[in-house]
User: Fold this.
Amino acid sequence: MSAESATPRVLSRPAVRGRLSPAHLRRLRWTPVAPVLATVLVLCAPVPTGDAAAPGGVTFADGASVLLVTWCGVRLLRGRGGPLTPLGALVFGAPTVAFAVATAASADPSASLPGFLRSLQIFVLVPLAVLLVLRDARDFRLLCGALVVLALVQGGVGVVQNVTGTGASFGGRTIRAVGTFGPLDVMGMATVVAYGLVAAVALGLGARDRTPRGLRPAALCAAAALVVPLILSYSRGAWIASAAACTVVLFLSGARRAVVVLAALTAGAVVVIGGFGVGSAQVGERFASITDVSSAPDRSVDDRYSLWSAAAAMWRDEPATGVGPKNFASHRDSHAPLGLSSGSDTEGAGQDFRREPLLSPHNMYLLLLSEQGLVGTTAVAGGWVALLVVGVRRHREARSAGARDCGLAAVGLLVWQTVDFLYADIGGPSTVLTAVALGMAAWWALHPSPAAGDEAAAR
Assistant:
């Protein structure tokens, strides 16, 4: 017997990997992060409404998020997934305890249980799953790319709605861009487009030699295209949050560049809106309505301030634990001013006229205060502050690293969300995307080596 035949033919792991085709290797590369991408891209599909809607308002995105959390749990049981630092355990553990305390202290814990589960889903489980599933900067960029693709799809639908007059009702005309979310979730498309805009700006400004070729021009072109549907959404909160987030991203990428870009954008806006009058009447009126609470045509601002007043009154009654999750609506009328209207009129985008009740204060911080008191607000908002501080510090430390664009995107998305929460709260299909964005910010702040993918590529 020859020596060759006597030697057992055992293939080592590198040899097996070497026999795999490049296409197979790419599929293996995408497999761990696929549930996160699916959770984002499923929002490209039209949202079922009316009789087609699922009971309890559950959407396809909610189902995808459940699969994401399950996938993460399976990976953890198999010894895979990223590590959780002590700060990460605190950021996600404290809200879990706070939600449980507020639910137990509620006058009707059974009625508060759905609110507890929803809060746990959006602020703990889905962000934690994103943190543990993402492995390196390449995964993070894939997720940013998914956000941009989703924004371009929904924004494209919104622009068509505005041009053809098939959008949601606004000022007596069906011109408001809402994408496939419909008039019942007018903030849905604005949120999606804003996320894509911030991610595209960050990728365009932070791209370096180690990032994929052509990423910078493609990202900047996508960002420019997304400005149009964002404006046509007529969402004041999304405008303010996007301006704040993009300004922060600009200054983090370089103060000198930020001054030049802001000057150029200001000059361009003056020429386009002031000189040519493009959209000046409607956009200008919408901006002016932000601080005008007395004009009859835009009663939504007056109603919002009344809801804020009701939320503050609930918190004063129950300062520690609030009135309980999901209980704002049942306590609204006993705390709101008499001038609060009974609902909001919705129409257009393929749906008949409906009057939707005002079930939340449209301010996440006041919603937390009213329903979960100082306990819940401190735990949730304190975690966001910690992520923001650590994220900015990490970005400064990674200025020379290839993952600088990831830091800009993570910080920008978190800034956008914390500012937008001054004018909005959770609700609707796009809420799952909020959880994904929080998870991306957590990954950048808490992952031991966020630039691992670029370092491996450099070697």
User: Anything to note?
Assistant: The first strand starts at residue 168 and ends at 170. The chain is about 65% helix and 5% strand. Residues 83-298+380-454 form one domain. The two ends are 43 Å apart (CA to CA).
